[in-house]
Structure formats: C-alpha cells, structure tokens
C-alpha cells in the first residue's frame, strides 16, 4: 500500500456531459499502472462507470447477475432494515488487472437516497440511527480500504445536488471538478462551490456539533478538499484550443478561485488549485465512444478498431497517453502531499 490510509476521491460536477465518468475511468487505469491499488466505486444510478469498466457486451450479459454484487447489495441491510452494510460484497477485477477493481453501480441506489431524506434530519438532530444510515457507504469504503489495502477509491457520482451526493461528498477526502470550456461549466462551478459550502456548514453546525459520544466512524468528516479542476473536450485547431474555447479557458480560473479554491481548499493548495487546471484534455471525437463499447482506456485503444483508422486517430491516441499520464501524475502529487 503506497499511502498510510485509503484516499477517497470524487469526480463531480453539477453539469452533466462534461466527461467525468470517462476521466475517472482513465485516471483509475493510469493509477493502477503506476502500482496504486485502485477501486472504482460507481455511485451514479445510471451505472455508466460500471458499463465503461466492463465493456458493453460483458455489462449487458451480466447486468442483473446474482453473483456479481452491487452497491445496493452493500446497503441492503441498512435500506431494508434489520442489518448493516454487507462487508462480504467483493470488488470485481477490471480487465484482469490486480490493481484495478470495481464496485458495480445499481439503478436501485435511488432507494437509498429516499431513505436519506429522513436519516439526514435524524443525524442533524443528533439521533444515532441517522448517523448509522448516513455513514453506510463511507463505513464500507473505510473497512474495505483497510482490509484490502486499497490506495485510492475513485468515486463517480450523478450530476445531482441531492442528498445522496451530499452524503458522498461529506464522506470524501478530496474532490476534483471536470468541466468543459463553455458558459454552462462556469455556471456549474458557481453552483458547486455555493451548495457545497452550505452543506459543509450545515453538517458541522448540526450533526457534528451534536455527535456527543457517537462513534467517530459513524459521523461523516464533512470537509473534503478541492484539489483542482480538469478542462475537458476542448476543440483543437492548429495544435491549440480554438478561439472560443481559449476565451472560456481564460475565464475559468477566476471562477474556480472564488467559488472552489477559496471556499474548499486550505494551506498551500489554494493558489495551486485555481491558477492552472490539473490538466487540459482535448476532444477525441469518436474515440471515447469506441472505448465505452470495448471497456478500455482511451490510450489503450487499438486504432484499427476505429472506423476511419486515419493517421489523425493514431496521433490522438498517442497524445492521450501523454495527457492522461500528466493528469494522473498531477493528481497523485496532490494526494501524496495532502
């Protein structure tokens, strides 16, 4: 194990379609290649990360497998009552890589979110049952991280600002924000920063303040660290971002500083987290769609499997190796330092 304890990192954005699932998967593959035992945790009821990690054919055949358990099986005892998290649920190996694992998502995860509407209120008023229910996912990850020597949990979430994502965030160690160079992404930064600050303050002033003698493991820490943003899918002309995307890329840092870095960073990371993105990833056209079908990272795709198989496709795949190597290295540098 490369870290003293497991690190829980969320890829999150209030704006959908920014490529957070693709980025999370490709970064996880990169981490695993660097020797970090990495577990993909699919906490989006859409289950896109599960599909990407498995490949479309395998995923479709095993969608309702009784053998391969999901996040719902982990939470079943808490949701249905009378029991606790199921620590016997095993992670699935991804592509026979001993360092890359998956906990499948489940469309029924929304049932747990329904339970949280009551549980959060109970925790906020200091009731033990509320802490027990709101901490379920976090407790599972911490126990599995310790027992299975997981270095990094990569957590994928939906774009929602609902209670499920609130509990996921309050239990996380770090969060990274993928975005595209456009107006909606800038608005998403404002939404995230403002809402996350409210969530953290409310939790600190209610549930944490009233915890009393409640076991620490039942009380979500409630203070994840923003480590940076990723500019994704910029269009290229003349080997640089097109003019419209460059204009938005110049506006993003100030928004990140105001709404994310100054509210959700600390120590020496504040300035570092907004001045420059963790990395900028170009638009790879049809390549990501093919990767989703096959369940492979962008930089592992065989160019011959892309319909056009042109020189530009090969060059893009080669470029992706450099981009994701730099991105994963930058993230790992922060995780090691903080």
Automatic annotation (TrEMBL):
Name the Pfam families for this protein: AAA_31 (PF13614)
Gene3D superfamilies named among the record's database cross-references: P-loop containing nucleotide triphosphate hydrolases (3.40.50.300)
Identify the residues that the record assigns to the AAA domain, covering every copy: 7-200
Reading the lineage from the top rank, the first entry is Bacteria
InterPro entries according to UniProt:
AAA_dom, DNA_Partitioning_ATPase, P-loop_NTPase
User: What PANTHER family does this protein map onto?
Assistant: COBYRINIC ACID AC-DIAMIDE SYNTHASE, P-LOOP CONTAINING NUCLEOSIDE TRIPHOSPHATE HYDROLASE
What protein name applies here?
AAA domain-containing protein
Question: What is the species of this protein?
Answer: Candidatus Ryanbacteria bacterium RIFCSPHIGHO2_01_FULL_45_22
């Amino acid at each position: 194990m490369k870290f003293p304890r497991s690190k829980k990192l969320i890829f999150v954005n209030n704006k959908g379609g920014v490529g957070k699932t693709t980025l999370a998967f490709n970064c996880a593959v990169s981490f695993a290649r660097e020797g970090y035992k990495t577990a993909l945790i699919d906490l989006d009821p859409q289950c896109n990360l599960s599909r990407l990690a498995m490949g479309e054919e395998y995923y479709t055949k095993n969608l309702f497998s009784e053998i391969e358990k999901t996040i719902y099986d982990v939470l079943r005892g808490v949701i249905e009552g009378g029991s606790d998290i199921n620590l016997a649920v095993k992670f699935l190996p991804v592509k026979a890589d001993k360092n890359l694992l998956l906990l499948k998502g489940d469309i029924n995860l929304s049932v747990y979110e329904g339970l949280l509407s009551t549980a959060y209120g109970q925790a906020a008023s200091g009731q033990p049952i509320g802490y027990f229910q709101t901490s379920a996912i976090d407790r599972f990850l911490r126990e599995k991280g310790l027992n299975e020597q997981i270095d990094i949990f990569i957590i994928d979430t939906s774009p929602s600002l609902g209670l499920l994502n609130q509990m996921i965030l309050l239990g996380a160690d770090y969060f990274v924000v993928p975005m595209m160079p456009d107006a909606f992404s800038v608005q998403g930064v404002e939404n995230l920063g403002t809402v996350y600050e409210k969530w953290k303050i409310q939790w600190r002033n209610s549930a944490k303040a009233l915890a009393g003698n409640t076991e620490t493991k039942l009380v979500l820490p409630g203070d994840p660290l923003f480590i940076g943003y990723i500019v994704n899918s910029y269009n290229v002309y003349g080997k640089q971002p097109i003019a419209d995307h460059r204009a938005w890329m110049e506006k993003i840092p100030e928004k990140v500083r105001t709404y994310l870095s100054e509210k959700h960073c600390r120590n020496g990371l504040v300035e570092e987290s907004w001045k420059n993105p963790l990395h900028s990833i170009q638009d790879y056209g049809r390549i990501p769609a093919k990767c989703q079908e096959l369940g492979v990272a962008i930089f592992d795709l065989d160019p011959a499997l892309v319909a056009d198989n042109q020189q530009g496709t090969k060059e893009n795949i080669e470029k992706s190796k450099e981009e994701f190597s730099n991105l994963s290295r930058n993230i790992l540098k922060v995780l090691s330092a903080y």
